[in-house]
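pls design
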């Protein structure tokens, strides 16, 4: 894959997020790909990846992502330390999301924090 191929895949994945369709999002992943997130742990396979997206879209129906400029090294992609991907011509081989899950719940109003 060259850089323009990687950029095209990332653009497609951003459009998939905007579609708010778990099936479309999972379709960007390879059939036997992995997905790791704080909420789901690590899952394998497109069907399991779709379930993770379904969970996120149901839990946060107004969720919107702001994408930073990716750092691309061959088939490895990183976004501001929040997400890492390995890609292939067939799609996303592995995705790992790392973020402040508690902070996201507080911002969404799902979790209340007590002062220290």
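designed seq:
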């Amino acid at each position: 894959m060259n850089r323009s191929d990687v950029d095209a895949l990332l653009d497609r994945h951003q459009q998939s997020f905007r579609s708010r369709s778990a099936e479309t999002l999972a379709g960007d992943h390879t059939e036997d790909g992995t997905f790791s997130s704080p909420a789901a742990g690590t899952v394998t396979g497109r069907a399991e990846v779709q379930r993770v997206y379904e969970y996120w879209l149901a839990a946060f129906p107004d969720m919107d992502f702001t994408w930073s400029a990716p750092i691309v090294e061959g088939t490895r992609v990183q976004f501001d330390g929040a997400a890492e991907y390995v890609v292939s011509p067939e799609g996303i081989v592995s995705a790992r999301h790392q973020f402040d899950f508690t902070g996201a719940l507080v911002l969404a109003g799902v979790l209340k924090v007590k002062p220290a």
